[in-house]
Amino acid sequence: MTFFDVPIIPSAPLRLGQRVTIREIVPCDDFLPSRSARGTNHYMAKEQEMRGIVVAIRPAEATLTEVVVRNERREDLEAFAHLTIQHIQNVTVAMSLTQRLIRRAMLPFLLDARRIPVDRQPVVLRNEWKWVDGRRVLREAGSYTNVMRRRRAGGDDM
């Protein structure tokens, strides 16, 4: 099992049966030019990824929900990934009415020990490299300049 905290809002709310791709991200604000937008967090997505189907959604704490994803690749060592995300109904997770009622009944018994802040406008750069003139360089599709250009034009950057 692998455990992840999810600091960004998924492109679609996580729900049972949904096919998802999980990439580990690391903050990279220290590596970007000082002219980068203030208040915008930057992350670099690692090359390794896990693809799978959401098989369970359950309350983890008072403000957090745990999403369990079964890995589709049988050759991987990890069979499941447990994602913990801030619970915002129909934004980060989409629970059925029954699941919401169970969550509501459990709230008085759930701890509120930790917080996972959610970035609403992060810049996620893909860690994809290619060789150019004997040098390893970041692919143009994931470069910081192109991501910011698409963002200013109103396009999707993820």
Which short descriptors sum up this protein?
single chain; 158 residues; mainly beta; 6-stranded mixed sheet; two-stranded antiparallel ribbon; 2 helices
Task: Give an account of the 3D structure.
- This protein is mainly beta.
- It has one domain (2-127).
- It contains two helices and eight strands.
- A hairpin with a 4-residue loop joins strand 3 (42-59) and strand 4.
- The longest helix is centred in the middle third of the chain and has 10 residues, at 97-106.
- The protein is globular and about 60 Å long.
Low-pLDDT runs of 5+ residues are none
Task: Tell me the span between the first and last alpha carbons.
Answer: 26 Å
- Element-level helix/strand string: EEEEEHEEEH
- Fraction of residues in β-strands: 35-45%
Report the helical percentage. 10-25%
- Write down the oligomeric state: single chain
Tally of strands: 8
Count of DSSP helices? 2
Q: Which class do the helix and strand fractions yield?
A: mainly beta
Shape: globular
- Average pLDDT, all residues: 81
Domain count: 1
Largest sheet: 6 strands, mixed
Produce a short descriptive summary.
The protein has helices at 97-106, 144-152, and strands at 2-6, 19-27, 42-59, 64-71, 80-86, 123-126, 129-132, 135-138. It is mainly beta and 158 residues long.
